[in-house]
């Protein structure tokens, strides 16, 4: 089973964006050496703790620092962009780095509505996501000499397109179009099981994919002991709570007792959202990963985990890679 890595280029408290971007490049090289299949970056806006807003630019930087691992977007939030410009950007990346570039597409804006307006997109009440996906795939596909509008770069690059989602909508669309599907179970696991069933049951083979390929996201906070893994997770618990409360900021430092920092109701909601996680020592993380993989039978997993200390983050993904190789 393939295992991959999702990076948000986190900006920890006490750090800045240049350091965060340098850390992402360092983590990518580390992940490639550990056998990770893909390294995906996600588009978010107006969030002080995330440095991957200009996702295509950062993908190019990461691709230049690696040589074999696939590099891509997990994902580009298509409502923020004209499909034509996405095709040009990813066509350029594919022209520079060959068949190593992936394009995952999301339907949400990845930000608040005021920022969506600042992006000059997303103001229409009509859902054009399916049409935009089809249009974008066309710009990346075989060159049509009769077409009045063609993407250069873009045409004939055949960048693989994924549908991302956290509901049945994305699963149904990916199945209808015959595209690979990635579920955001690392922060919205409620519909995971049903979405995978719908995707696999409804999948229509296409020129892009002959059989369904489903990927699920798992948070990993691995360390030498259970206690240290639990402590590492408190960074993401705090960050997620602040986001839900409308107070996003830089990635907070871990704490010894999360219950002393979040009230009971908030903590319960956060833990439910982050329930697809593997937390603790190598032995505990192995058991957690085995349980999740056995239950959902994904074709691929993509690991993530907002960890404050860069060295600890690298070590967490190193422990996880060793476990997944053996599984």
UniProtKB/TrEMBL annotation:
<dbReference type="GO" id="GO:0005829">
    <property type="term" value="C:cytosol"/>
</dbReference>
<dbReference type="Pfam" id="PF00296">
    <property type="entry name" value="Bac_luciferase"/>
</dbReference>
<comment type="similarity">
    <text>To bacterial alkanal monooxygenase alpha and beta chains.</text>
</comment>
<dbReference type="InterPro" id="IPR050766">
    <property type="entry name" value="Bact_Lucif_Oxidored"/>
</dbReference>
<dbReference type="GO" id="GO:0016705">
    <property type="term" value="F:oxidoreductase activity, acting on paired donors, with incorporation or reduction of molecular oxygen"/>
</dbReference>
<dbReference type="InterPro" id="IPR036661">
    <property type="entry name" value="Luciferase-like_sf"/>
</dbReference>
<protein>
    <recommendedName>
        <fullName>Luciferase-like monooxygenase</fullName>
    </recommendedName>
</protein>
<dbReference type="InterPro" id="IPR011251">
    <property type="entry name" value="Luciferase-like_dom"/>
</dbReference>
<feature type="domain" description="Luciferase-like">
    <location>
        <begin position="15"/>
        <end position="291"/>
    </location>
</feature>
<dbReference type="InterPro" id="IPR019949">
    <property type="entry name" value="CmoO-like"/>
</dbReference>
């Amino acid at each position: 089973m393939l295992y991959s890595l999702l990076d948000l280029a986190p900006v920890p408290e006490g750090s800045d964006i240049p350091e965060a971007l340098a850390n992402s490049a360092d983590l990518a090289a580390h992940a490639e050496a550990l056998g990770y299949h893909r390294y995906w970056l996600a588009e978010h806006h107006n969030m002080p703790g995330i440095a991957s807003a200009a996702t295509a630019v950062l993908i190019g930087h990461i691709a230049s620092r690696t040589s074999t691992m696939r590099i891509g977007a997990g994902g580009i939030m298509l409502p923020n962009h004209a499909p034509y410009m996405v095709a040009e950007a990813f066509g350029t990346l594919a022209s520079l780095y060959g068949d190593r570039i992936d394009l995952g597409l999301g339907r949400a804006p990845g930000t608040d509505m005021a920022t969506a307006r600042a992006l000059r997109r997303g103001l229409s009440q009509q859902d054009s996501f399916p049409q935009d996906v089809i249009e974008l795939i066309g710009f990346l596909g075989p060159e049509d000499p009769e077409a009045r509008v063609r993407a250069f770069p873009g045409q004939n690059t055949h960048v693989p397109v994924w549908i991302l989602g956290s509901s049945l909508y994305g699963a149904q669309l990916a199945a209808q179009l015959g595209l690979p599907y990635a579920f955001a179970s690392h922060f919205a696991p409620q519909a995971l099981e049903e979405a995978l069933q719908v995707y696999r049951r409804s999948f229509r083979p296409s020129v892009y994919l002959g059989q369904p390929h489903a990927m699920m996201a798992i948070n990993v906070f691995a360390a030498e002991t259970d206690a240290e893994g639990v402590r590492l997770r408190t960074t993401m618990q705090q960050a997620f709570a602040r986001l839900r409360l409308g107070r996003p900021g830089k990635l907070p430092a871990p704490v010894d007792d999360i219950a002393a920092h979040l009230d009971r109701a908030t903590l319960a909601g956060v833990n439910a959202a982050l329930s697809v996680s593997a937390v603790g020592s190598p032995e505990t993380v192995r058991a957690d990963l085995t349980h999740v993989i056995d239950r959902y039978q994904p074709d691929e997993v993509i690991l993530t985990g907002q960890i404050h200390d860069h060295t600890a983050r690298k070590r967490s993904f190193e422990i996880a890679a060793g476990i997944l190789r053996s599984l």
